[in-house]
Amino acid sequence: MINGNRISINVDSHKKHIDPMIYSNFIEHLGECIHNGLWTYDPVNVPLVEGNPFLVGVRKDILESVKDLKVSVLRAFGGCYSDVYHWKDAIGPRESRKIVKNKQWARFPISLYKGLGPKIENQFGTDEFCHFCEAIGAEPYLNINYSTGTPEEAAQWVEYCNGSINTEYGALRAKNGREKPYNVKFWGIANEIWGRQEVGRERHPENYAKRYLLFAKAMREKDSNIKLVAVGWVKSAWNQAVLEGIGEEWVDYLSVHKYVPLPLKLSTIVGKKRKTTEESYYSLMTAARLIEKVINDTWEDITTILGKNSHVRIAFDEWGVWEKMRQIVKTNYYLQDGLCTSDILLTFQKMSDKCPMANWAQLINCIGTIQTDPAGLILTPVYLAFKFFVDHTYNNLITSLDIECETFDSNKFGCIPKTNNVPYIECNATINNEGDKLSIMLINKHFTNDLTVELEINRFVPKEQGNIIELNSQSPFDYNTIENRNKIKLKKKEIDNIKPRMMFKLPAHSVMVLKLNKK
Ligand code: AHR
User: Fold this and answer.
1) One domain for residues 389 and 477
2) Can you spell out the DSSP letters for 419-443?
3) Which of 200, 313, 342, 402 is deepest in the core (most CB within 10 A)?
4) pLDDT at 1 > cutoff 70
């Protein structure tokens, strides 16, 4: 039995750098992510971006809210779709671009998933994507077509993006309106290629590694500075064989994906209504442990094959809360999903040395942080959770932090296993480079109870005035709607009685950050 909740932080302890690439995102030609999400086809009642010919189909409200999210790396155009994507269909004058069937996503039964695989008019192609990344301040990350494409096609794409205007494809880029190379640094070679969901499924990791090398060599010939991402899995045998076959020199990141609580039984993923019980809530509140396990297991695979000094790191380039298939057309998120996202982001902060890149999947509409409608946007609690981190935490993690509190047990929910002894309170403390601004991020996972915690801050004397920012609502299943877009929003208030040791109330099912300045 714990006698009261306590958190003790030693600010003087070792700091771990947090890579901002853990706040990355992803877009795909899937559902309404790009089609009528990022790029507008139907009329809307909001202004579109002006002044950049490459962004004329992008809504101003989207550009601004994505910019606010400080997305570090943006991955495109799939996902599974990358295996049917031919980049040359989506460059040059927009009126003459090839309109294609969505050969990846239109394979699924339309009656169940209307709108899943929209026709691709290719108005948002490489130039539009790279301009969008520049406008929001994100590093672009492109996934090449491994299955129905060729190493030559991929290498030409690298040259189109990064080559000088004296190269064939660099000259084509200039002709299309952009002289300066885009310098796309991150390139993925295939996506989830081990799975049934992929058009060009590859069952044998050895075969994948062999063909991967053909792509890697052709692409690096065009630009030797690019960083290459190979397809990993939550299976060690796959990861180890892939790394063995590719070798240290030709890979920089091994990618892994995990959605929670997918996979559920097929019968439970159709339909619209998500589970909203105390039991399912508590299961989601343990999902971060599963993510932690995936990172540790993948890291083990990397170091087993390439050794402890390998430069290869993990790119967790798809993750998110996803329960029903329909959510990949358009969805909305509950407060609980914002809590779960925050909890997982705390884990990514702690593990950024092994896994410096993590991309929420996806940015808009399709399992998206932002939902669009003709009159405006819904900034979901997932969006707000990311905002919380990018605006209110720093890039140095304080490693000595002890939490003492009551725990809960949870049940299996989809891929989230039954878990015991999970603390109700989670906390990370981060500090700026100068060492004079401290941020303490706290989650109270209790379904119903506010929790009082004794907070002890050592080796940092705070000024009495500071700020508290809170993500909370009456019910964990509250969400923002068109009628009430700001039902859930980040609430900021000033406090003026901060002491190095103090009692603090954390409301039930909430995330809270305490921002302090050094005296
Ligand atoms: O993000 C949706 C899909 O989920 C991606 O295309 C695929 O990589 C994953 O299975």
Assistant:
1) no
2) EEEEESEEEEEEE-TTS-EEEEEEE
3) 342
4) no
Q: How far is the CA of 227 from the centre of ligand 1 (A)?
A: 21
pTM: 0.98
Distance 405 CA to ligand 1 centre (A): 37
Task: Provide the 3-class DSSP secondary structure of residue 449.
Answer: coil
CATH number at residue 267: 3.20.20.80
Do 354 and 400 touch, CB atoms closer than 8 A? no
The pLDDT tens digits of the residues spanning 429-455 come to 999 999 999 999 999 999 999 999 999
d(CA 186, CA 139): 8
> Is the C-beta atom of 79 inside 6 A of ligand 1?
yes
What residue's CA is closest to ligand 1, atom 6?
A: 79
Domain boundary among the residues 363, 395, 427 is at: 395
Q: Are 41 and 86 found together in one domain?
A: yes
For residues 476 and 327, state if they share a domain.
Answer: no
* Nearest to 28, CA basis, from 77, 66, 74: 77
- The strand pairing partners of 467, in sequence order, are 494, 515
How many domains is the chain built from? 2
Atom of ligand 1 at shortest range from CA of 195: 10
In this structure, which amino acid lies at residue 390?
V
Q: Are strands 437-444 and 425-431 parallel, antiparallel or unpaired?
A: antiparallel
- The boundaries of the domain holding residue 335 are 18-395
Tens digit of each residue's pLDDT (9 = 90 or more) over 188-247: 999 999 999 999 999 999 999 999 999 999 999 999 999 999 999 999 999 999 999 999
**Residue 2: is its pLDDT beyond 70?**
no
